[in-house]
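Exam revision sheet. Question 4 asks you to relate a sequence to its structure. Input first:
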Amino acid sequence: MIHPARLAIATVALVFAAELGPAIAQTSLTSGGPVDPALIEDLVAANRILAEEGVLDAYGHVSIRHPNDPNRYLMSRSRAPILVTASDIMEYDLDSNPIDPQDRRSVIERFIHGEIYKLRPDVKAVIHSHSPAVIPFGITQVPMRPVAHVASFLWVGVPVWDSRDAHDPASAGMLVRNAALGKSLASRLGDKPVALMRGHGNVVVGPDVQIAVRRAIYTEVNARLQTTAIAIGGPINYISAEEGTARDAAATDFARAWELWKKKALGK
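Answer key, structure tokens:
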């Protein structure tokens, strides 16, 4: 027979362990290690560039995969992109748990990033925005197609994700609040560089943060131009698959655009 006093001690110990369990699990997460300050600077610049270019506003977020650990990613705490600094950058595992939160609030929709990194090992940067001109293409039957050479990467197709298709209890809220919704969105994105989110915005990915930023900017530009072309009327002579493929393989001088955007955003 167990002595009552020992039973009481064991019960308290179990309750205490249950309460501390999540905290212990959190502190056991290990960092992917130090990151080159220049890469952090580019991540900060990406937030500010996209805000300056009208792709992000008070909301939206940019992440990069950790350069030393593919199972970690880096993203700002919950803050307006134009205000992001290096001290705001947080590290997450691919389940979107913060490694060292330090009382900083995480972005609600961080699951977009973790689930895309899980599904797409080729992706090194993810952007989620409420890019305004793309919204109509996510709520109508008109597909987004490239009309300008700078957006030729859209030739592969632009899928539309509807949160209701995930059949998740949180779907009606239209925010990607959990891993199930993030996984649904990542699956809809598939191997494409851009996916629209019905009534919400889009997600853009790239092999590095600079290319992801370029794609996000020119997806917004293309949406405006395509809307204008539709309004003019008549057949539209879209960028062809042959042209898109050729441009994908061609050398570019994108560095000049990044230099300009970064200087405008950071002053250097």
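Marking note for examiners. The CA atoms of residues 37 and 137 lie 38 Å apart.
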